[in-house]
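Table S5 (text form). Sequence records supplied for joint modeling of the three-component complex.
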Amino acid sequence: MATDAAATLPDQAMAPQAWRIHSVRRDVASNEVFSWTLYPEPGVELDAAPAPGQFNMLYLFGVGEVPISVSAITDDGGIVHTIRAVGSVTRSMQDLEAGAVIGLRGPFGTAWPLEQARGRDLVLVAGGIGLAPLRPVIHAALQRRSEFGRVVVCYGARSPGDMIFRDELDAWEARDDVDLRITVDRGTAAWRGNVGVVTQLVDRGGFDRRNTLAMICGPEVMMRFTASALERRGLKPEDIFVSMERNMRCAVGFCGHCQIGSHFVCRDGPVFPYPVMEPAFRIREL
Amino acid sequence: MNELLAIIEQEPFFEDMAPEHRRLLAACAAKRSYTAGTRLMRDHEPTETFWLIREGQVALESPLREGSVAFQTLGPGDILGWSWLLPPYRASYDARAVTDVHTLRFDAGVLRERMEADPTFGYVLMKHFAALIVQRLQAARLQALDIYSHGGSEHGH
Amino acid sequence: MHVMAPQAVDTLIRLLSGDGYEVVGPTRRDGAIVYDRVGGLDDLPVGWTDEQAPGHYRLRERDDDALFGYVVGPHSWKKYLFPPEETLFRLTRQPDGSFVTEPGESHVPPRAFIGMRACELAAIDVQDRVFLGQAVQDRGYAARRRDLFMVAVSCAEPGGTCFCASMDTGPRARKGFDLALTEVIDATQHFLVAEAGSDAGRAMLDRLEPRPASDTEQTAAERVWAEAPEKMGRQMPGDAREVLNRAFEHPRWEETAERCLSCSNCTLVCPTCFCSQVEEVPDLEGQRTERVRRWDSCFNQEHSHLVGGPHRESVAARYRQWITHKLATWHDQFGTSGCVGCGRCITWCPVGIDITEEVTAVRRDPEGRG
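The corresponding C-alpha cell record, covering 813 residues in total, follows.
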C-alpha cells in the first residue's frame, strides 16, 4: 500500500554541507581544546540560525562525524564550535588549520530557555569544557543585560591550566553586572582563586531562590550535584536546566543511539528540564 | 550582642535554629578580622574555635602536600573549623587567610559546655555541623573523581 | 467477500510482475522460510510448515498443499524498506578543498510483497512512524515505501512463539494492505478468500476474476478468523508497559543477563528495531568517500559509546534497554508499542529468552523479592 510520504525531504538535515574554517583558536596548553570559527561555502545556507544550546554535526571528509554544541554565534552568519580532541574524529580535526573545509549539518536539538529567564536572576554553571555550550547563552544574556536580574556565572575546571576562554572570563570578571565565580579542583602555588568543586560556588547563593533560572552544563555527575545544591538553595527543580551527553549520531531520532528512557537526546534534548532527567541521574546505565 | 545576633540570623548556616539557640551562639561570638597571610588554624594544634567567614577568602592547606597548595578555599557564608567538636580537638589542616578576612569567631570551648549541659542545643548544633561535614565530604569525593579529565566529549561537554 | 482458487496467487504474481513490480514473497531456503524474489506459485513453500519454540525453528512437510501454512521466518520486510546496508551519500573532494555531496540512493523498483502477515503490517506501521512520522523524514525509506503493493495473509495457524492476539495486531489482517487473503483448507475444500483494502487492490482483484463466496465458504473463512487467535503459542501481559516502567531496578535483568549472549539476534530479526550506525567508507586515493548506514543493535557495547566508555556497559542494562524500549518507552516516543507479537526474538534467541516470559516474571514479582 503506497504512502503519501512527501517527496520533498529536507535533505540538508542528513547531508553534510561544506563550511570553511575561518580561524582556529587553541585553548589549554596541550592544544586538546580548540575552537573553529566557520563560514558557509557559497550556496550553503542553514534552514535556521542555531540557538544557544543547540548542536551541529561536524564532519571530516573520509573520517566521520561528531555532534558538537554551538560555542558562539557571530553577527555575520558565522558559527563557533569548541571541540575537545578525545576520539578518533576529533583528534583528526585537531590538526586542521584556517582555510580547511569541513562538513556541517544542523542545527539540531533544544535550546537553553533564555526567554524564560527574563525578569529573573540567571545562574549559569559550567564544568570543564561545558563552558562552551553555555557561552552563547552568556553572550546573549550580556547583550540583553537589562532584561535579567542578577547574572551569576559559575565555572569549575580541573586546574588553572585547564580553563578555557580565559580572556573572556577576564572580561566578564571586569564587569560589575556579572557575578563571575571560578573554582578549580586542583590549585597551583600561583593560583589565587577558589579551590574546590563547582557546587560550592552555588552554595554561596547570591541569587533570589524564588525567582531564578539555572542552566548547568558539564559532566553528568557535576550536573547532578549542582542541581542538588541549587535545590538546597531553594530553587524549584523545574527552574533548573541541564544539557545531556549521549552517543548522538544521526541527530534526528533515526539511529537510536542517544536514548535516555523515553527521550532521544538529539531530538528532545540536549537541553532538558532537570525533573525530566533526574531519573537518568539516579538509574544506573539508563 | 544584638549586632552579632542580627548577623547570625541572616546566615543560612544557622537557619532553622530556635531563637534561644541563636542567642546562645551569639553569646559565644565575637567579630574578628585577619590580614592576608594570617594563619587561623595550624595542622595538629589544639583548636577551641570555629569561624563564620563574612568577607574574604581562606585557604585550607595540608602541610603534607608539596609547597602547601590549597586543597580547598572557603569564602563568605562558609564555616571554618570543626575539630573543636570531637576529641582530640586538634586541627587536621592549616587555614590561612588569602585576603583580608572578616569573620565571626566562636568560642567553641564554651559552646561545647553548653552542648553538654543542654542536649537539645547540643543535638541541633551537632546536626548542623554533621550536615556541613557531609557536604564537604561529598565535595571532596567529587574532587577526587577528577570529573573533568575524561569528561566530555565529542558533543562538547 | 470474494473467493479464488489457490492458483490465483500464481496469476497475481505474474500480473504484478507484468505491471513492473519486483515481486517478493516467502520461499524455502537453507531450512527456513525467507523473503526473496518469487516468479510464481512454484517459488512459494507450498505444503510446508514451521515448528517454532524458544531457540527452536524447524521446517516440516505438511500433509496438504497449503500455500501459506507457516508463519514468519527469520526475515522480515524490514530488509527491503530499511536495508541492512545502504549508502546514504557519496562525497567527492573538490580542487579547492571543498567537497560535493550526492545522494547514494540508486533507483528503487516498485515492489510487491506477497504473504505479509498481520503482525508484519503492524511492524511497517511502526517503522513508518519512525522514518516518516518525525520532523525529518528518511529519504531512502520514503522512496522504497512509496509505490508498494502489499498482499496480506491472515494467519490460520499461529506458531508456537506467536502472540500477536495479545498485542492486538493480528492474526487477521485488518488494515494497511492492498489485498488480503485468507486460506481455507481441509479434506474437502481449498480456496482463498480475498478482500481489497485500497483502490489499487480493488483493481487488481477485478483482474483476478474472483467469484462471490457462498454461505458455506463465508462460514469457513469466519471460522478461521475466529479460531486462529485461540491458537497463539504465547501471550504478552496487557500491562507490559506499566510493568516495565516500574522495573528499571528489577533484579530480573541481572538474571537474564547471565543467559543473554548479547548476540543481537533479537534486534536483527525484529521487524521494528531501527537502530543503525553510519560508517565512513573512503576510497584509497582519498578523493571519494561514502556514508554507509548499517543496522546496529542496542546489544552492542559501542551502541552507547561515550568518551569515558560505553554508557550501558553491562549486559543487564542493555537487555533492559531493549525490552523497556520495545514495550514501554516506544509508546512515549511513537504512540505505539514497538512490539507487534511476531515472536521472532523468541524463536531466534540462541538461548531461548522469551520476551513474554520476562515481562510475566517481573509482573509476578514487581519488587524482585525472588
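Note: Helices of chain A lie at 88-93, 131-143, 166-174, 199-203, 220-232, 265-268, 274-282.
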